[in-house]
Amino acid sequence: QTGVKEGMVVKIPKKSGSVIIEENTLNYVVQNGDSAYSILEKYNTTLDELLRLNPEAINGLKSGMTLKLPLQKGAKIVKYGSAGKLKRANDNEINVVMMLPFDVANNPQLKNSQAMQFFTGAKLALTRLMKNGKNVNVKVIDSKKGSIQDILSTTDFSKTDAVIGPLNTSDVTEVANFFSNSGIAVISPYANDDSLNSFTDLIISNPKDEAIADQILEEINKNFAGEQVYLLTNRDDQELANYTKRQLEKQLKANVVIVDNAAKIVQPHDKVDGVDYYTPIITVLVGDDDTLGKQYLEKLKSFNKDNIKAYGIKSVSVYDVYSAENAKNIDAFREFGFVYSTARLINTRDTEVQSVLKDFKDVYCEFPTRYEQLGYDVMYDIVDRMNNKGDVMNNISSEYTRISSKFAYKKLAGSKAYTNDASRVVRLPKK
User: How far apart (Å, rounded) are the C-alpha atoms in residues 375 and 118?
Assistant: First the structure.
């Protein structure tokens, strides 16, 4: 080996996946059999430079560790593609790329990360899809291993039908821009910011919180009689509560108060000639904080049930109508004719859902987390829609419910992307 010299052509990454480019360095993953001498010789660098970029190498090299090596000035990088240049192969294969932020090098608790949980669910979906006759080729990319642009330009996507991921808005934006008008679907499993609506071939799987809130706004609209409205929420869902407040004030001219503790919800009460009179109020729990959900239920129990209209936007554990352990809570909510809307709901009485949950328990010994549910649902839904040529767009408008998510894709007004706007309304009518 003579090292990297000016004018040479460097292919990155190699088929082994051991090298990627990042700024002015090569990120090289040490392979079995590598020695410091062989790496210095191969990449035409010095021990001093190696140690300057990788101080930890002073303790020796280990297989799997990542080294930064200087990219020689003038080296030409062969890139597989650039934005707007790719086209889907439309062959007789299904080829899916998963691009998730594993961040292997800096994440010692990888198994607990959102990306790994999503991947865990997706793997189970692939197993079940293959049992059902779908042959799927999958490539997994760590989107934290270098810049998104370098990963995109130096990865061979020539046989790709769909890319699932990444998770955050900025990364999805770069990926969607790269594949725009290619016929290769990019699926955003979590990010759903309005800025993504301008991309063609983009499928946004996660319904917007506003779409979930709109379901309850419609319910309140039908039954509103001028009551004081309390929105109970926490800091994480403050923006959604603000949206709900604005809509109630605009649509109904309602008097709306946002509170962060159930104790701040007040039902006025008077006693005249020994008779109790309660002022009707409306309460809405906005968000998916389980602790706040329990607090909300206990507060509701203290009110006069005939003068309360109670709702929920998003779901918490005490709403779970399919949990046998939750029967008393559900009975309590029925006293108020409770209604809530949610993007995710696991019907544990459904035979297919029971089968999936059994697989999760057999393989992973646990009930799937939210991100495992999302990984399963998104992977299963996208591949299940594909024909034998890997085309997902031929069946994008059909409506399906997976283990916890419902998918109904459409192009909303002014949007080029396909957006899932499906959420479910659960009613607990009074007995």
Answer: 4
Of residues 27, 11, 113, 118, the one with CA closest to residue 64: 27
Torsion 257-215-405-340 (CA) sign: positive
Q: Which residues contact 309 (CB under 8 A, 6 or more apart)?
A: 220, 223, 227, 280, 281, 282, 283, 336, 337
Helix, coil or strand: residue 141: strand
Give CA–CA dist 77/8, Å, rounded.
9
**In whole angstroms, what is the distance from residue 332 CA to residue 428 CA?**
10
Closest CA to 248 of 228, 265, 233: 228
Residue 78 phi, psi (nearest 5): -80, 120
DSSP character for 353?
Answer: H
pLDDT for 57-73, tens place per residue?
888 888 878 888 887 65
Give the sheet arrangement for strand 418-420, strand by strand: 136-142, 94-100, 162-164, 185-188, 202-204, 418-420, 409-410
- Which H helix or E strand runs over 191? none
Among left, alpha and beta (phi > 0; psi -120 to 50; other), residue 266 is beta
Q: What is the helix (H) or strand (E) element at residue 205, kind and residue range?
A: none
Q: Quote the distance between the C-alpha of residue 69 and its chain's center.
A: 34
CB 12 within 8 A of CB 19: yes
**pLDDT range class, residue 105, cuts 50, 70, 90:** low
Mapping DSSP to helix (H, G, I), strand (E, B) and coil, where does residue 293 land?
helix
Pairing of strands 202-204, 418-420: parallel
- Spatial distance between the Cα atoms of 229 and 217, rounded to a whole number of angstroms: 12
Specify the range with the lowest mean pLDDT, choosing from 47-51, 117-121, 356-360: 47-51
Nearest to 94 by CA among 133, 64, 121: 133
290 and 316 in contact (C-beta within 8 Å)?
yes
Tokens of 58: 């002073």
Q: What is the pTM of this model?
A: 0.74
| CA 88 and chain centroid, separation | 24
Q: Read off φ and ψ for residue 219, nearest 5 degrees.
A: -65, -45
Closest CA to 167 of 342, 406, 375, 9: 375
pLDDT tens digits for range 191-213: 999 999 999 999 999 999 999 99
First to last CA, the chain: 81
